[in-house]
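Researcher: We're teaching a course module on how sequence relates to structure. For the next exercise, students receive a sequence and then see the predicted structure as tokens, so they can try to spot secondary structure elements on their own. Here is the exercise chain.
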Amino acid sequence: MAKTGKKGFFGNHAKSSAAMVSLGIHAVLIVVAISFVAVRVYVKNEQVFEAKPVSRPNMKLKKLTVPVDVKKKKVQKPKLRKTIVSKPKTKSMDIKMPEISGIKGGTGYMDGGGLGSIGFSLDIDLFGGSKGSGNELEGTFFDLKMDSKGKPSDLAVEITGDKAKDAELEKQKNREFVEVIRNFAGSWNPKRLEGRYFKAPKSKFATTFMVPYMKAEEAPKAYGVDDVVEPRRWVAYYNGKIAAPETGRYRFWGIADDILMVRIKGDLVIDANYPSQDLTNNKDQHRGRVTGWLSDDSRSRQFKSSKEQGYVIGDWFHMTKGRPIDMEVLIGELPGGWFYCRLLIEQEGVEYPKSADGRPILPVFKLQEIPENLLPQMKLDSGAATAEGPTFGVLK
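Model: And here is the predicted structure for the students to work with:
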């Protein structure tokens, strides 16, 4: 019985071993098969994406040739270049400036925009332009018959209806006006006028002081206050910088009806006020007149005939080329009626043309060139003054 049990044990285990061997062999075969399939699939996929060689025809490259036509090339140049290098036609470049029809409706006023970049404004008259570029003296207008609030001042006349009495009151107020201007000339402080009298809301920018014989109301018109200001007992104060084109000594020649005074670097260099008005307490300033003032009766004939007589010669002052200095000008009208002022300049050592009576024909004092359409309004007497000459603006 013991023998039989031993045989059954080894027989059973033998069968189990054979089964295990068989399973192992099958497992190896399966792994090999899987690897073979994977390799085959990989290789097959690679073969799918391989591009087949394609036969391409050999193409001959042609040389690119562009015909050059010199004439056409010139025609096809940009129009801008053609405009720059070609000579402009006279008609297309003939720019006509609008004529001055009047000072805000009167003589010497122009409507339009400003040309500050070239030194002057289109809205310009004989009292200055409405805009400044830096080459002007800025002007402020004051009516001494009204206070700073626009009410009658102590220089206003209350009309009584009695002509003789009203005329006497006017003379009295004119004398008081002279005192105010004399006090101003002692300090040249415009704040004294600003705090006490009516000031026009807009400024003017002047480059010359060459106002021909005209009605005194043209100044309030130029400043846009003619609807509230009567044309008498008014002044306009101008100040700014000037610079000489050459180093040397200079002096002004001036004439006015009624007020024209100039200060340079804080010093009064000319008082060309009408001689019946001693506005500076310095009668010596009236010495040096070329031909002397005409009488009151012939004064109008003098102005209307444009005979430049009675100039005041100012004091010499020194200027350095290109160095800015302060300049102040006061113009004004006393009794009303007519206004007039001229300001010329002389440089020491310069030979000027002579008039028939031997007087030098001096250039107009100016800070920049005068617009051609403004020159006729100045009514220059060629025997006394010329628009040709140096400019004294600080900007060149």
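Model: If you want an answer key for the exercise: The two ends are 143 Å apart (CA to CA). The first strand starts at residue 114 and ends at 115.
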